[in-house]
Every structure is written in C-alpha cells, then in structure tokens.
UniProtKB/TrEMBL annotation:
This is D-serine deaminase-like pyridoxal phosphate-dependent protein. Residues 1-80 are annotated as: Disordered. InterPro entries: D-amino_acid_metab_enzyme, D-ser_dehydrat-like_dom, D-ser_dehydrat-like_sf, PLP-binding_barrel. Signal peptide: none annotated. Residues 400-498 form the D-serine dehydratase-like domain.
C-alpha cells in the first residue's frame, strides 16, 4: 500500500477535474453545504437531445404565456427550449471532501485526505479492501453515448431516472451528454437534486405531502428557471394539492401529468375514461396545470415473452389514446412520458409518433423516456431484457458495475464463502455471478460455479467438482451484478476504475451517492 500524505504534506496536484462538461453561467447561485456555487453544467443545445421545459412559462395564477382558449396554446405556443443545468461547482466540490471510515472498503491510509489528494496518489484497485463495488470508466462513457444516440435516432427526449444512482456526479455526465432533464421518485430526492442545482426535474410519482408541496412552491417562486412536473392519479390528490398550495406565496401553479395505470399494475388511473375526468378536475383547479400523460409500462411485464410484450404494447396504446383525448384540455404544451430500462423500444414504437414539439397538429408535445439503468446496466436482469443488451443491438449497453469479494473460508471442497453479502451487493433481481478469480475466467476453469445464497455479510459460492486446493482462501473474486438500483444504495462512495478487465485496474475517480 502506498502511503498517502495529507495536510501540509499533501501530494500537490494541479490536475483539473476529469470529464468537465460544457458549462455556462446563469440561474443564480447554487448552495450546497453552505457553499455558493454559481456555475452550471448545461445540456448541449440542438437536435433531439436539446432541452425543453416542463412547466409553463408563467407558473403563477392566471393565463400561461401563449395560452389559447382552445387549449392548443395557439400559434405562439411550443415546448420551451432551455438546456437543463446542474451546478458544476457543486459537483466539483466533491474533490475537496474528506475521506474517512464511513466510506466502506476505502483504504485506511486515505482517511483524513480529500478525494483529490487521494486520487493524486494514483491508487490501484488492490489498495482497497473487500468487499467492493466499482464502476468502469470506459463502459460508463460508452453507455452514455449508446443511449444518447439511440434516443436521438428514435426521436424522443431522455430524462434519466436519477434514483438509480442518486449520484450527482453521474447526473452531471448525463446532463453533459444531452439529457432533457432528471427524473426522481420522492420529494426528498427532488430536494437533494435541487441542492445540486438541477434545473429540470420530473417527479415520477404523486406529490401529496403538504410539507413537500409547500417546499416545492417556495422553490418554484424563488427560482423562475426551475422547471418541475409530477403525476396525479386521483381526484383526492387534485383536491389535496390545490388546498396545500392555496396559501403559498406568489400564486405558484404546479404542472401535473395524469398517470395512467394498468390492471394488476402499480399506481395510475385504470381507465382512460376516468383519466379524462381527472384531467378536467386538474384543468378546473386553481393551483395545478395539466401538462400531459405519464405511465410506467415496466410494472406490467417482467420478461420479453409474447404475453408480456402484448401487455406493454396495449398499455402504451392506451396512453396514446389518453393523450389524444386530452388535447383540448392542455393549456400550452404536453409531455408524454414512459419508459423504464426494459421496454424502451416498445415505448418508442408506440409513443414516439406523438412527438410534435412545434404544435403543428395540436398541442406541442414532447415524448420523454425515463430510462435510468442504462448508464450502469448490469450482468443480470437488464442484460436479459433490455433491447439494448448484447445480442439485441449493434452497439449494446454493457455492465459498468462489478462486485469484488474475497474468499474467507473453504469449509467444503465444493463450497467457498466470500466476504460480501446482502449489505454489499444486490440480490432482488438475481444473485451475483462469478466471473473471474486469480486472473482466470470461471467459464474456463469451472463453468458450473454459482452463487447460491447471500447472507448479510457472506456469499455462498458453490464449486461443483472442485478440489479442496482450488480457489484458495484470500483469492479475490470478480462478480457480475444484477439491478444497479439496489447496488448503489449500499455504498456511500464508489470507486471508478479505468477498466475492470485490466490486470491491475487503476482508480480514477470516486463517486458519491445520496441515499
């Protein structure tokens, strides 16, 4: 282990933060941890990946800018064109954060150093303790490019689900790659994103918490460039939101999308006819703006079998029907949004034809895909179902995450126990898959090797036909993982390595998460 010097003896470095995105100033300062951060990272303009707004030009009580009585917004109405931003300085401030024992598996020699000081020592992967979750830099870059190009060609906008990683550093990379906005799942996640200056947020959920609604109203009133929308699926929610916002300062209005659900699915109005009544209630409310249609097709199928695909297509067709039925109610423009990371091809097939951002055939409409797992992908669930996985796409997504665990016990010839468990690696959508050990592929030396169970801190690795001397204690095993959403939430700090396939991977960055 190389020694790390800190404080006055710290290793000096003049290196600039890596992967600096295209940036511009504007939108006022961002405050994070009491520090003012005035600079922002912008999504690039131009093409299908340029930014469009999701709140009306005038959120306050009264007519929206460009609003016409027929609900189409008139000739002047169109989907606003403003790049999404995230506070660049707030993200770069991570380089100055101090490392410590709260960061799992970090080498103790790094405690007390800043991220920048530690990275200046050019650490290797084997400097870290196990268990460990890592991200692959080259694969992250490739996945960002693959998804951005795919969305551009498909004619849809991308608002990746930030709840997958809850990592502002990765959000900034998605913004720099041209995403339309950031999607989140809870009010607290929205608040965390606002702390890092994210200027366009889709809350893929209903918002009925009065405390959160009052915070939102204040945030919208404080920052006129903050654009936000959430979902609604019940008349009671409309009434609750309208009441909670009644006395907020500035007469702020909140944009909501009517959520359509499906039988045996999750949230969402079950019938188009009921959704129409809900939309009319939104239109009649004082504090809400009807802004489109939302849904999540991933709740209706968990494989690409014929029945699952048919269910997803039927559901998306109902979403399209609802949008067409609501055109006369839209005040200015509409957002139609769906798409997890399993059926985005079907979302494009069924919904992309609705895109009409200039309003040539009615209300200006943007179709927004919310896929979140693509930047990381996996070696399990998404590898088996994504239309952009290897074997289904010319330029496939690949897993940028890997688990690393050490053999700590060989109580039986055909059993190895590793020092990782449910508190370290995901297990809800499949168990880890052994890939490498001691520089050898499991597919070459023991293709039947299989993880059969995870305890809190132990992994059971079965080794059919193995001898007692195989896979010795102390050997580090690389594992393929399934479901990035439940991998990231177990780590506060995730090392980024140059390549997981390198003989001696180098750590090039540290990604902070907020769970």
């Amino acid at each position: 282990m190389r020694r790390l010097r800190t404080g006055r003896n710290a290793v000096p470095t003049d290196e600039k933060p890596t992967r600096e995105a295209t940036a511009s100033e504007g939108g006022g300062p961002v405050h994070v941890d009491g520090i003012e951060h005035p600079h922002d990272v912008d999504a690039p303009r131009g093409g299908v990946t340029s930014h469009r707004g999701v709140v009306s030009p005038d959120r306050r009580t009264g007519d929206s800018a460009g609003q016409a009585g027929n609900g189409t917004g008139g000739a002047a109405a169109r989907v606003p064109d403003r790049p999404v931003r995230i506070g660049r300085a707030a993200v770069e401030d991570f380089a100055h954060r101090t490392l410590g024992p709260e960061h799992k598996s970090l080498p103790p020699a790094a405690w007390g150093a800043t991220v920048r000081e530690f990275l200046a020592t050019n650490p290797c992967l084997d400097d870290f303790q196990t268990p460990l979750l890592t991200l692959d830099r080259a694969t992250l870059d490739a996945n960002l490019a693959v998804m951005g190009e795919w969305a551009r060609r498909a004619g849809v906008r991308l608002a990746p689900h930030g709840k997958t990683t809850m990592a502002p550093q990765l959000w900034a990379e998605q913004v720099a790659a041209g995403c339309w906005g950031i999607t989140l799942a809870t009010p607290w996640q929205v608040q965390a994103a606002r702390a890092f200056g994210v200027s366009r947020i889709v809350l893929a959920n209903s918002l009925v918490d009065p405390v959160a609604l009052r915070w939102l109203a204040g945030e919208l009133a404080r920052d006129p460039e903050f654009e936000f929308c959430c979902w609604v699926d019940d008349l009671a929610s409309v009434a609750l939101m309208d009441a909670a916002l009644a006395d907020t300062p500035g007469g702020v209005r909140v944009r909501v999308l009517v959520e359509l659900g499906g039988a045996h699915g999750r949230t969402g109005v079950r019938r188009v006819e009921d959704a129409r009544a809900l939309a009319e209630a939104v239109r009649s409310s004082r504090r809400l703006i009807l802004g489109g249609v939302a849904g999540y097709e991933g709740a209706l199928a968990h494989d690409r079998g014929a029945d699952g695909v048919a269910a997803v297509r039927g559901y998306l067709d109902e979403m399209a029907r609802l949008h067409r039925d609501l055109t006369d109610l839209y005040e200015d423009f509409a957002v139609v949004t769906a798409g997890g990371s399993a059926f985005q091809d079907l979302v494009v097939e069924r919904l992309a034809p609705l895109a009409d951002e200039t309003g040539s055939a009615g209300a200006p409409t943007a179709v927004v895909l919310r896929s979140g797992a693509y930047v990381v992908h996996d070696d399990g669930f998404y590898a088996g179902i994504s239309p952009l996985a290897a074997g289904r796409a010319d330029r496939p997504l690949r897993s940028a995450m890997h688990g690393w665990a050490r053999v700590i016990s060989r109580p039986e010839p055909e059993l190895a126990l590793l020092d990782a468990g449910k508190r370290d690696f995901p297990f809800d959508e499949g168990l880890p898959v052994p890939q490498y050990a001691g520089g050898q592929r499991f597919s070459d030396v023991n293709p039947a090797a299989q993880v059969t169970a995870l305890n809190d801190q132990h992994t059971f690795l079965r080794l059919p036909g193995a001898a007692a001397g195989d896979l010795q204690i102390g050997t580090v095993v690389r594992l393929g993982l399934s479901h990035p959403c439940t991998a990231f939430d177990k780590w506060r700090l995730i090392p980024v390595i140059d390549s997981a396939d390198a003989a001696d991977p180098r750590v090039v960055d540290l990604v902070h998460t907020f769970f």
